[in-house]
Design goal:
- This protein is α+β, with helices and mostly antiparallel strands.
- The chain has one domain.
- Helix content is 29%, strand content 23%.
- Strands 1, 2, 3, 4, 5, 6, 7, 8, 9 and 10 form a ten-stranded antiparallel beta sheet that branches.
Amino acid sequence: MQIQTKHFLTMLVVAGISVAAFPAKAATITTGDILLGFRATGGTGASSNLIVNLGQADTIFRDATSSIASVADIGSLLTSTFGSDWNTRSDLFWGAVANANSASGDPAIDGDPGATNYFTKSQTTLNPGVKTSTAANINSSTSRVSISNNIQSLNDKFSASTGTDSVVIASTGGTTWSSSITASNFGVGSSIEASNVNGIDATGLDLYRILDSNTDANPSQTVGVPNWEGTFTISSAGVVGFSVNAVPEPSRAVLAALGLGGLLLRRRRNQKA
């Protein structure tokens, strides 16, 4: 009984602090995939955008119940596009977007009705798994549909450019990550990207979901009000992670109660013997 109790308590603690790993990059884009974009405002790679498909926004990130330690390892892509010093550059920006469907009123896909959008905001203080940014409401359905159309245009460019999970495209000419940012950040208004004087590995991107309708939405939320889903981070080696609110570690009171229960049970058994 003592050994079993010890193992049980150990499992509780592990469950409270465990972090999942997930090989998440998707080979071809489908409706609802998150595109992670990188651009440099000068120097090496200024003429290029790197765009990486991270997979389904809804089933991977919206529904995440634990943090994902490794969504994608893109260090070599960042080095080949922006140079070996990419992780220390202050002029390198990154952000992410996704849309479930560009048309308002379209049937829900995995709980995301038409014109459901996902976008990121830079954390004001790096704290993965805790919302530290602010995303403004988008109260107009016309604006939400316009954002979806802008994201869909990038989806189409990505799809036409590659059959793999990443693409490097020119930063100018037609629809690009850079042009979509210049056009009022895909229509979101304020910046959806992050940068830092010490490099992007010192930043976090809070991911938000915003609904155009609650019809068949799962989970539902207030229409037009962004809902925080978690935080993207990137290491100096180029490993992208996703953090959600950690499952709290069992409190000392709970552990003490379990321990006391075990002692009482053992004492009763000794008395019977």
